[in-house]
Amino acid sequence: MVGFCRGKMASPSKKAKKPITKVLNDPIHGHMELHPLLIEIIDTPQFQRLRFIKQLGGVYSVYPGASHNRFEHSIGVGYLAGKLAEALRSRQKLKITDRDVLCVQIAGLCHDLGHGPFSHLYDGMFLPKALEKKEEMRRNGELGEEDKLEEWKHEKGSCDMLDHLVEQNNLKPAMKKYGLIPEKDMTFIKEMIAGPLHESKSEKASSPHYVIQKSDKILYEYNIREDKTLFIPQRAEKSKDSQKRAHSAQDEKGYCDIINTLVELIDLEKVMMEKYKLKREDVKNIKEMIAGQESKSKKEQSKLEQEMKKKYKLKPEDLKIIKEKIAEGKKWPYKGRKEEKSFLYEIVSNKKNGVDVDKFDYLARDSSYLGIKNNFDFHRFMQFARVCKVEGRNTICTRDKEEGHMYDLFYTRHCLHKRACQHRVSQILQEMIAEAFLKADDYIQIEGSGGRMFTLSTAFKNMEAYTKLTDNVFEEILNSSSPELQEAREILQNIVSRKIYKFVGERKPKKTIKDWKNLKLEKKWKKTLAQPLPDKEEDNLTPEDFEIQVINMDYGMKDKNPVEHMHFYSKYEPDVAKPMSIENASRIGTTIYSEQLIRVFCKKIDEQSVEAARQHFEQWKFKM
Q1: Based on C-alpha coordinates, what's the Rg of the chain?
Q2: Sign of torsion, CA 149 154 155 156?
Q3: What is the CATH number of the domain that holds 603?
Q4: More exposed terminus of the chain, fewer Cβ within 10 Å: N or C?
Q5: How many domains, in total, are found in the chain?
Q6: For residue 131, is it within any domain?
Q7: Taking a C-beta distance cutoff of 8 angstroms, is the pair 334, 328 a contact?
């Protein structure tokens, strides 16, 4: 485990009355000077818990160097968050206060408080399995509505744990001592971690994040493709009558309204490009022109509208719709800080393009411990970072000559995911751990507040119980003698004995398969995989003998290019930032930013079964 040594650094001036900081020695960032309030947070049981949660989960079983934990990563992010905020403050007059900087540092420090055992394994693999299991039990009448398990992500847990940490350790007086206003600044800190905090259903329903999330469900429920045409599932009859019935749905009351709503709300840029045959560069120009109208006189606005009508052939009603949608997107969703400080929300967790200090630390730290080269230099980014107005909001931008360097950032991320996080052995090991946790779920009891008891899948509902949940649960199950935990224990014993499911093959689908779990493709695939081989002896392989994983790898924004969502300034106009134009952008690179793999494993590990499973896979992949 990485060790930190502490030392005191004297205040540079008695008159300034600056708090006495402490220094931690980190293998990645060297000597890190930290504010005393950060030290008080670090020295709590809730934060110390992160010492016992592996940063890369099951990757440690493949890469012996991946022994680092969420503890040191979180401290690194808190440190870098302060460095970036200070760099921006020293370069421009942005009204960044000491209070702002301290809040940003706390957000960076606490952004991963909500991680469960083996990091992303808990909320990314285990909880979805537990949710699916409980939903099935509820449908069968085995569970009531009160036992319903909701979808949950670690960002929500980080906010809940931060509240719990502050309350349990009575840190509000310390926060006030160092100039914070707990009631307001706690909201700001949590918003930087998890995005807008919606207090009411009506507020939530009006947020852009919620609209996009909801639209995905509508697309699936109404069988609408992304291009807004009706999708007839493969399971439907392919007769002319069935096609007529499906297409007649377009005439049903409300169907067209749904499509129109989606067209307007899901992706304004995409719709404008499709509807008006515009290039992406044209769309950006239009948005910028409209956004800049607010500061112009009515005469100038009228002239600008005429120019847009002439150049882009937009009708008055088209302009009105585009203006309304841009206005909706421009509504400030945060409460912790006013819109003029919008750039502060991009430091810890950047929702626009993913360029943030969380990524800076884990790329440097993970690469170092894994022995994988990191081509991105975050020190260089901080040197060129500036705040510029983009569509009316202050946004962190970088120099135009840094385009290639930003591609290095996302390419390094992709390499880490491909070679380590999505490594086929580490992924199947994590699948087995999640399976063991699922079998142990009802028999692991964790005491929470008021003496209430929680299981592995419900501990996140109570932060006192969740504080006790770490990677140690693996050892607890492995070393138990309880007969109820026998199945789970056997799976973990197989893991430590390296008797893991055997890889039999993988393939890339011709088209990305979205929402494959909801489409119930896994059961169908397993059934097809187990079909007898022609002219072969019976091998007794069943659908339950196969494990299927669908792996998605990208640059951080699914199939989009994150660099296209960045803005760059030139040394001649340091306060004017624009997207990289097609003419100036590098022509050497990729046009595809995501890929999907379907991996098949065999749970039987004897040579005969594995060889038979490989033959089944070869037969199956041609039927897909």
Answers
A1: 27
A2: positive
A3: 3.30.70.2760
A4: N
A5: 2
A6: no
A7: no
Residue 316 lies in a domain: yes
Token readout for 598 is 């379907």
Query: Rounded distance, CA 594 to CA 296, Å?
Result: 41
* Spatial distance between the Cα atoms of 304 and 309, rounded to a whole number of angstroms: 9
Give how far Cα 301 sits from Cα of 285, 288, 331, 333, Å: 15, 13, 21, 27
Is the residue at 107 inside a domain? Answer: no
- Taking the C-alpha atoms of residue 161 and residue 189, their distance in angstroms, rounded to an integer, is 12
Average confidence score pLDDT of the chain: 83
* 69 Cα distance to chain centroid: 19
CA neighbor of 76 nearest in space, from 45, 111, 116: 111
> Tokens for 232?
């007839």
- Is position 354 within any domain? no
How many angstroms separate the CA atoms of 307 and 527, rounded? 60
Q: Higher confidence at residue 353 or residue 279?
A: 353
Ramachandran region of residue 520, left (φ > 0), alpha (ψ -120 to 50) or beta? left
Residues in contact with 439: Cβ distance below 8 Å, sequence separation at least 6, in sequence order: 485, 487, 488, 491
d(CA 32, CA 34): 6
In angstroms, the CA 562 to CA 542 distance is 43
Q: In terms of Cα–Cα distance, which of 166, 199, 576, 189 is closest to 344?
A: 189
Full domain range(s) for residue 537: 501-558+593-624
DSSP state of 355: -
Tell me which of 29, 35, 115, 154 is the catalytic residue: 154
Q: In angstroms, rounded to a whole number, what is the distance separating the alpha carbons of residues 492 and 482?
A: 14
User: How many whole angstroms separate alpha carbon 318 and alpha carbon 6?
Assistant: 62
- For the whole model, what pTM was predicted? 0.81
Q: What is the pLDDT of residues 54-100, one digit of tens each?
A: 999 999 999 999 999 999 999 999 999 999 999 999 999 999 999 99
Domain boundary among 279, 306, 330: 330
Listed in order, strand segments (DSSP E) in 248-392 are 386-390
What pLDDT shows up at residue 38? 98
Domain final residue pick, 279, 297, 330: 330
pLDDT in tens, 171-226: 999 999 999 999 999 999 999 999 998 744 444 444 444 443 444 444 444 343 33
